[in-house]
Specification:
By secondary structure, the protein is mostly helical. It has 16 helices and no strands. The chain has helices spanning 24-37, 44-53, 55-62, 68-90, 97-111, 122-137, 140-166, 172-182, 185-196, 202-205, 208-228, 230-236, 242-250, 254-286, 290-316, 318-321. The longest helix is centred in the last third of the chain and has 33 residues, at 254-286. The protein is globular. The two termini are 36 Å apart. The model has no long low-confidence stretch (mean pLDDT 91).
Length: 338
């Protein structure tokens, strides 16, 4: 186990109210049953760890007003994300570019609607199940946007695996460019619209104020993840973390890198707040009607829920407090053998 330099982690200041969906317990019961049925988790140890990481609690904080079906779907998707993420960080796929490429290709085929063959195992069946249920709730336009964002994340994972294979720590600019996709932020933010049953109008979505809101909220989330998850990733020997990237690139004390990331959170929230004012001005310029204003602002509130909710969950979950190390996660690479 690697030595970890002494470091004090700050409590990021995210100035939005904490919220919790009242149907959390329903989602928790559902998603554990779902993950067991699909064999994403097997055995008492894996089930206990899964329950402690509490993805139902995560989505109850992220989507506090979602209906039961959408909340359960979000819990299953986030459970799948984290099982998949562990494959890329801790199992064989994460250090084998060929396996990673084949996994991404198979994921793309599933999202495009391809039927599963006899080689498909838990990871592919889980993705197909989420795909089919999402399409029941979503418009064709929303699904296209979501699936495109998700495929972008799968492609970015190849960059991460290649870095890990070569022992290449990315520079800060490259890391920031790729991080939102590494953390599955764009497709996760798409779920805000599914939960709100409202799609942001195209002219607003493409605007500078709304794009800024989404971008800055995403980076607040990933910076929060990199602060709270720092010890976990140091223990795992992982370096795709902005604190570690700054630490290595600048040859500064680890504590200084921590403070830089914490300051980045505050700065990005300031930009987010300024963009909210710009968005209201844009509504007037476009002559946006009250229904579209209200729906869009609900989605902006959804971004605030994400920033605060992720922080609250990160401090509650066992995922960061009780980390699993390389070699302690069962690999699903058998699904990738043609």
């Amino acid at each position: 186990m690697p030595d970890i330099p002494p470091v004090s982690l700050p409590d990021p200041s995210i100035p939005y109210p904490a919220k919790l969906n009242p149907f959390e317990s329903v989602a928790a019961e559902h998603t554990i049953t779902w993950a067991r049925r699909l064999r994403l988790i097997e055995g008492e140890t894996a089930t206990s760890r899964f329950a402690g990481e509490s993805y139902s609690r995560l989505v109850a904080r992220l989507y506090p007003e979602a209906s039961v079906p959408v909340l359960a779907l979000a819990a299953d998707l986030n459970s799948w994300f984290h099982v998949y993420d562990d494959q890329f960080e801790l199992a064989e796929v994460g250090s084998d570019p060929d396996l990673a490429r084949r996994m991404a290709d198979k994921f793309r085929a599933v999202l495009d609607g391809a039927p599963l063959d006899d080689t498909a195992g838990p990871i592919l069946h889980g993705l197909a199940d989420v795909r089919d249920r999402m399409r029941l709730h979503a418009t064709a336009q929303w699904w296209h946007r979501f699936s495109t964002h998700l495929q972008d994340c799968f492609e970015t994972a190849q960059w991460e695996v290649d870095n890990r294979t070569r022992g290449r720590i990315p520079d800060p600019d490259s890391y920031v460019e790729h991080k939102l996709n590494i953390a599955y932020v764009p497709p996760s933010f798409d779920l805000i619209e599914l939960a709100e049953q409202f799609e942001v109008p195209d002219e607003i979505r493409a605007s500078a104020p709304y794009s800024t809101l989404v971008h800055e909220a995403g980076h607040v989330v990933v910076c929060t993840n990199d602060l709270i998850g720092l010890r976990r990733e140091l223990l795992q020997g992982e370096f795709h973390n902005l604190v570690i990237v700054y630490w290595k690139a600048l040859s500064c004390p680890l504590q200084e890198a921590v403070e830089m990331v914490n300051q980045t959170i505050s700065e990005r929230i300031d930009v987010f707040e300024a963009a909210k004012v710009d968005l209201l001005r844009l509504f007037d310029e476009l002559g946006t009607d009250q229904n579209r204003r209200h729906g869009t602002l609900r989605c902006v509130m959804g971004l605030e829920n994400w920033m605060r909710g992720y922080l609250d969950w990160a401090k509650e979950t066992r995922r960061f407090a009780d980390p699993v190390l390389r070699g302690q996660v069962a690999g699903f690479q058998g699904e990738l053998v043609d």
